[in-house]
Amino acid sequence: MYDAILRGPHLALSLMLITTGLAASDRAAHIPVEPGVSLELARHRASLISELEYGLELSIPRDAAEDIPGRISIDFLLDDASQPLQVDFRESADHLRSATINGREADLEFTAEHIVIPSELLNSGANTLHFEFVAGSTSLNRNPDFLYTLFVPDRARTAFPVFDQPDLKARWNLSLDVPEDWTAISSAPALETEQTGERKRIRFGTSERLSTYLFSFAAGSFQTVTRDIGDRAMTVVHRETDAAKVARNIDDIYALHAAAVAWLEDYTGISFPYQKLDIALLPAHPYGGMEHVGAIQYRAESLWLDEGASDTQLLGRASLIAHEVAHMWFGNLVTMRWFDDVWTKEVFANFMAAKIVNPSFPAIDHDLNFLARHHPRAYAVDRSAGANPIRQPLGNLNLAGQLYGAIIYNKAPIMMRQLELLLGETAFRDGLREYLRRFSHANASWPELIAILDRESDEDLKTWSETWVNSAGRPHFQLLREQNRGLVEQRDPEGAGRLWPQRFTIEPVPPGTQAPVPHEITRSGIALDAKLAPAEEGLLFNARGYGYGLFPASLATLSHWQDLEPAGLASLLINLNEQMLETGQPGPAAYLEALRDIVMATTNQLLLDLAFDQLRHIYWMLIPDDLRSRRAPGLEAQLWKALDQSDTESLRKVYFDVLADISVTAPGLMRLKAIWAGDLLVDRLPLSERELVALTIELAIKLPASAEVLLGEQRQRTKNPDERRRLAFLMAPLSADVSTRDRFFASLAEVQNRETESWVLDALAILHHPLRHRDSERYILPSLELLEEIQATGDIFFPTGWLRSTLGHHSSDEAVETVQTFLERRPGYNAQLRMKLLQAADPMLRANRLRDRATPARDGAIP
């Protein structure tokens, strides 16, 4: 942090030091100058500033190590010029080269990440600010041949001076000077390109009104594909070198975007609200996707699917595309006023995505898909000591990144489906249409939406929202028996008397013996019909997955699993898994045996993925090492048999991916190595370059004596330059030499070594692989000590990823003690980071308690 007055080449700026967080002058005392963008500052500026427009020019050198000079003009109307005005710029003093305010060069204070403009330079009415600067690199994601911006939630201010808050929407005018062989896309169409020797200048048109976090550009050495989709031209820019992969996927990418746009136009009654819809497929992107207006960014690997992609992968791609396109209406057209409501844009994107993909996949059980995608991830947070509400308070945008997580992406859509059930589909849709029309190209809050929906219902939605949206955790359901009757009781595990009104179905097991029983929980208990068996093993709770909470489940019910519909079986598996983690019953070893039978017999790929996720977690985390060693030969043999008997490429891929993960026996590893080397060809099991890299990583960890040879050969035969760079980065953490791994981990303390965050998370997962946990436990404490810096310097998902990759495969007493001691010694630790740490540590804590129980003698597993 630099607290200084800046001196630029075009103006005289006096030098002085001031204390961070103090008011920049007596006249600014009403709005303190402090790091970040405080809620107080944001509200103040939003009340004064209107008709905002930016003109941004950047000159991007070919060499990613060189500075990017730029200039920006900021035009706006100001209602009251009696106080100084803060412009956000989170960079060091030497990055601001000059400033001109309403035509006058000026001495400006630069402190606590703000340029402070004195009131005497401001006008009540029209103002123009002009700054020349060196762009900060934090959010520019620079690579050797390309770069792209990621400004969410408050990162635009790390690149250039700006009013960086969501409720100051502005028009943007961008001009980029780039190497002559580069391509660029941004929020508005390119209007003209001027060639000057080895450089060219691309001038883009004026955008619609956008929040700063939604403005973006990508520039670099890209391949370009443009097609007319309906009455709209869409351009894809990418760096994929596998022409067959591009040809195999490009039609589907265009079709899925077009289908999502058409569905949303029909559902909302509002035409696509922006000038264009282009797509940037970027390697190692830190998010699955980002909904930038006019130029959606995706992690390339998420859309370029390999041959034989599974149903889960195909649905995942379609859902991701639908999610980002839905943001054009929900989040972009109507944007939250403040990031405490960031969840509103994410919940509607995920909720609408679940609806959008249905027509494209008519053979898929979409209740199963919704259940498997959302419930396990939401429960993983809500069962933890770090559970957070859907809507969280936020005092400063510099902490907004920590609001993201499974609660807003996964629990909130479950809540929204319950709200739609309460209102009815038509009333729900009509309320959303009114919301979008009323706040079009503006900002709104959750209470404003609830007020609209409240008029569509006889229910008290404000009270309903108080529990579902504003409180953390989940209800617990239990079955109370009384003679031949049963009572389903909802209980608040915190003892606060909260009630989660919801609807779900209880079905008899085996099915068909009685009619399913729909239940609407509007009070603490619901009496079951006397004819319905009151025993847990005779009932399937939350049969279609609409409900939310910890439901009763019995392992005995699985004796009828072949009679259940896939969604019902998925619900049972989720209920059993949650009971295992919460109560220890069923025991992990017994449940592992049950899962093994299921994955051998089912061909439903969504169900298989759910069961395999649970199986792998038990295999690596919840049973002792000696029991895993005894189980491994039989499990590997059964999975190879299932692979050989599978009749589709996609199903074979599902089994192969699990085998690559869980194989630890010498015969299993030799078979994998022979496949990697090409000495063993498995019919209908095509492996892409990236899949071979993933297999190399697994083999290098499990065959350390061969690691150097395996990695060296794979680097030579990898053609994609971005994938080669990734593999080169992972060489050190994959090394069999512990001291090499130690040096690599130590290097992560330097921010420049964490620039490509997805690679860093891959590296951490490798360092902390379950087979290496004894060597990697010593990394836990320094990783936790870096967490605050990780939050300050990384993108929004990086702190959570850092914690999960670090803690996710540990369960020893020593590892648990390290985490607990870290928190005990820091009673004043950042509340949001403490919450994220408790969430990430929850699997470790539960595994530590369960591993001692996971013996066949204790939990009934077959020896």
Give structural notes.
- This protein has 863 residues and is an alpha+beta fold.
- The chain contains 28 helices and 27 strands.
- Helix 7 packs across helix 8 and helix 21 runs parallel beside helix 25.
- The N terminus and C terminus are likely disordered.
Notable features of this structure?
alpha+beta; 41% helix; 28 helices; 863 residues
Give a short synopsis of this structure.
Helices cover 41% and strands 17% of the residues. The chain is an alpha+beta fold. Strand 12 and strand 13 form a beta hairpin.
- Give the low-pLDDT segments: 1-29, 856-863
Helix content: 40-55%
User: From the helix content, strand content and strand pairing, which structural class follows?
Assistant: alpha+beta
Number of helices: 28
N/C terminus separation: 61 Å
Strand content: 15-25%
Strands ordered across the widest β-sheet: 5-4-8-2-1-10-13-12
Molecular shape: globular
- By oligomeric state, this entry counts as single chain
SSE map:
Elements lengths: L38 H10 E11 L9 E10 L6 E4 L7 E6 L2 E2 L3 E3 L2 E4 L7 E10 L11 E3 L21 E10 L3 E4 L3 E7 L2 E8 L10 E4 L2 E7 L2 E7 L4 H26 L9 E5 L6 E2 L4 E5 H4 L7 H16 L7 E3 L5 H15 L9 H17 L23 H18 L1 H14 L3 E3 L1 H9 L6 H8 L7 E7 L2 E7 L10 E7 L8 E5 L3 E3 L11 E3 L24 H18 L4 H14 L3 H18 L2 H21 L3 H14 L3 H12 L11 H14 L4 H11 L3 H14 L3 H10 L9 H11 L5 H4 L3 H6 L1 H7 L4 H10 L5 H12 L6 H20 L5 H4 L4
Parallel strand pairs: 1-10, 16-17, 17-19, 20-21
Antiparallel strand pairs: 1-2, 2-8, 3-7, 4-5, 4-8, 6-7, 9-14, 10-13, 11-14, 12-13, 15-16, 18-19, 22-23, 23-26, 24-25, 24-27
Helix pairs in contact: 2-4, 4-5, 5-7, 6-7, 6-11, 7-8, 8-9, 11-13, 12-13, 12-14, 13-15, 14-15, 16-17, 17-18, 18-19, 19-21, 21-25, 24-25, 25-27, 26-27
